[in-house]
Amino acid sequence: MFQNGAWSATLPQIAVFDDAFVAQNVCSGIEIETAHRQNLHELILGAQGVQLNAAVLEQIAAVEQHNRTLRERGDAIPAATRGALTVDAFCALKPDPQVDVKIQEAERQLAAARAADRRPASGGVSAAQFTGI
């Protein structure tokens, strides 16, 4: 019995919760916050359950961080560079061992095309031939 601010006997099988504990952990219906739900959940889980839940939350955080890193790395590849490929498909592309040879050939063809644009057309009449007319 509780009298004069003290219990007359101890009963270890009974737990008494003060108003601070109830306000933090029990949903009274007046105010429901996420913290209330979480604290009540931990109370129901018990000590071992809380430890296991903490381990699960750590793994969830690790997965979320991994996914953020993947998104950041995917965003680092410009869409114009990937073309129609997804990030996964772009990253799965195999390196072309002939890429240097192909680049040199493309540069050679480009130089030849530019040189052809600078030359006057052969066999035609130039404007200089008509100045004496």
Task: Tell me briefly what this model is.
The chain has helices spanning 19-25, 34-75, 79-82, 87-91, 99-118, and strands spanning 2-3, 6-7. With 133 residues, the protein is mostly helical. The mean pLDDT is 81.
Topology:
Blueprint: E1 2-3, E2 6-7, H1 19-25, H2 34-75, H3 79-82, H4 87-91, H5 99-118
Antiparallel strand pairs: 1-2
What fraction of the residues are assigned to beta strands by DSSP? under 5%
How many beta strands in the DSSP annotation? 2
SS field, number of helical segments: 5
**Biggest β-sheet description:** 2 strands, antiparallel
Helix percent reads 55-70%
Task: Give the strand order of the largest sheet, numbering strands 1, 2, ... along the chain.
Answer: 1-2
User: What is the H-and-E element order?
Assistant: EEHHHHH
Category by helix and strand content: mainly alpha
Termini separation (Å)? 132 Å
Mean pLDDT: 81
